[in-house]
Amino acid sequence: MEQKSNIGIWLIGAWGGVATTAAVGLRAIQKKIFPPAGLTTEISDFSSVAWNSWNDFVIGGHEIRRGSFSETAEELIAQNALSREIVTPLLSDLREYDSEICPGLLHHSGKVVEKMASEDFCFFLNESPRQAISRLQRDMQLFVQKKQLAQLIVVNLMSTEPQCAYFQDFLLHSTSQREAKSFGNTADFARCQQEWQNWEKMEKILDDPKCPLPASTLYAIAALDAGYDFVNFTPSLGATPPAVREFAKKKNARCAGNDGKTGETLMKSVLAPMFSHRNLNVMSWVGHNIFGNRDGQVLENQENKATKVASKNHLLEQILGYTPQTLVTIEYIKSLGDWKTAWDHIHFSGFLGTPMTLQFTWQGCDSLLAAPLVLDLVRLTALAKRRNYTGNMDFLACFFKSPLGVEEQSFVRQFEFLESWLDLAKER
Q1: Largest CB tally within 10 Å, which of 139, 238, 259, 357?
Q2: What CA–CA distance (Å, rounded) separates 159 from 75?
Q3: Which of 55, 58, 40, 153 is nearest to 421 (CA)?
Q4: Which residues are registered as beta bridge partners of 256?
Q5: Cα-based distances in Å from 50 to 47, 319, 384, 423
Q6: From the CB of residue 315, how many other CB atoms can be counted at a distance below 10 Å?
Q7: In 99-241, which residue ranges form alpha helices assigned H by DSSP?
């Protein structure tokens, strides 16, 4: 019997900007239209790693609105984010990808995302969580069978969900008495601890008519329960609950997240250690972010924005060892399209207490910054499976703003985690 070798990339939010750019980029690399620039797995330091070929990967996914890869690519071309010379030779490939996209899930995704959904493409609104999980699994399993896949890696690229209010304090902090008090209801906090730490207890939530789990976590459970891998590239809940990560290990699957680190927060994770190492006191750090794509439109809603701000704003305390005054703003400016600009103002003091200032501006194309990370993450996840690694892939911390199970926030140190793991992988 012929051995299965292909690996599926199952994109949640498949017709969004990041997913479309990843699809275009993957096919352009496969057809040798463009070299794999901007990919961490392609740097010379990792040339001796036995990577899967880019030709091993195929694409499918879920989506909650009508569309197509070519339509989104056309939008990105109009915004000077993608090149028509690259996209045009790939149109037939993108249409083939379209045939593998299935209706998605809206559970607790927020009012803004619900308004974006197409009624004729997302019509499972009365499903229970268990019914939704079963449907999602059927879609994934049919894709695996059709493409004769050796592995399926589910990547969440859907729009940011509102914070899961019932559990958010537990998720953002450790389980101490202090956090229990800030949670406001110690009884709810205790229940939260029990349900989210243990899979057998958390699974029962799926039978609750008022199940608070959002779509991102239901996607994670659906994937992991089927033995597939799950990567959360968004700040949404995903596989954050310890019980879900426990479940991943139990199912011999892998998970990683959260929130791809592509711009301003990447700069913070590089610059903040410099202030710490030079013993310069950061008094305040203000970051203003403006962008105009669909994600920006979703983040205009305060509930969805709170999830993103929390992900962008937490790393300074860990790196510096104290909490400067901070402000993070995210504003939707429609005319910018997929281009985003971040302006940061850092007020610090040094020798003899004299106040000084550092400012920087980061401008980039959101989808073009994120898509190569998506491809790197699936390639690394494929390697992890070949190395029989299961559970939370904490060695991928350098790719995320809020890496699961990792307190270290310095980009350089996080990258050393990846280097060490790859060195070990080469030795096996």
Answers
A1: 238
A2: 17
A3: 40
A4: 231
A5: 8, 33, 11, 11
A6: 22
A7: 111-116, 129-147, 168-172, 177-183, 186-197, 199-203, 215-225
Residues 258 and 260: their CA atoms lie apart, in Å, by: 6
Which three-class secondary structure state does DSSP give residue 34? coil
The pair of three-digit structure tokens given for residue 187, joined into one six-digit string: 């009884």
Does the pTM surpass 0.85? The reply is yes
Place of tokens 């937490």: 314
Integer CA distances (angstroms), 185 to 84, 129, 196, in order = 55, 26, 16
Peptide bond into 185 cis (omega under 30): no
* Amino acid, single-letter form, for residue 57: F
Smallest CA-to-CA distance from 8 within 388, 378, 393 is with 378
Please report, in tens digits, the pLDDT of each residue of the chain (428 residues total).
Answer: 344 569 999 999 999 999 999 999 999 999 999 999 899 999 999 999 999 999 999 999 999 988 999 999 999 999 999 999 999 999 999 999 999 999 999 887 777 777 777 777 666 767 888 999 999 999 999 999 999 999 999 999 998 887 776 555 444 444 444 344 434 444 554 555 556 677 888 888 888 777 888 999 999 999 999 999 999 999 998 998 888 999 999 999 999 999 999 989 999 999 999 999 999 999 999 999 888 867 666 656 555 546 556 655 678 999 999 999 999 888 889 898 889 999 999 999 999 999 999 999 999 999 999 999 999 999 999 999 999 999 999 999 999 999 999 999 999 999 999 999 998 655 44
DSSP letters, 311-356, are: HHHSHHHHHHSS--EEEEEEEE-GGGTTEEEEEEEEEEE-GGG-EE
In terms of Cα–Cα distance, which of 249, 228, 208 is closest to 405? 249
Residue carrying structure tokens 């694409």 = 59
* Distance from C-alpha of 374 to C-alpha of 155, rounded to nearest angstrom: 8
- Give me the numbers of helices (H) and strands (E) for the chain, helices first please: 18, 11
Helix (H) or strand (E) holding 363, with range, is strand 355-365
How does DSSP classify residue 400?
B
Place of tokens 């859907």: 158
Using alpha carbons, list the distances in angstroms from residue 51 to 22, 55, 57, 60, 217.
18, 11, 12, 21, 29
Residue 167 carries which DSSP code?
T
User: Token pair of 337, please?
Assistant: 């399209």
Tokens 């079963």 correspond to: 134
Q: What is the rounded distance in angstroms from the CA atom of residue 418 to the CA atom of residue 397?
A: 8
- CA atoms of 29 and 26, how far apart (whole Å): 5
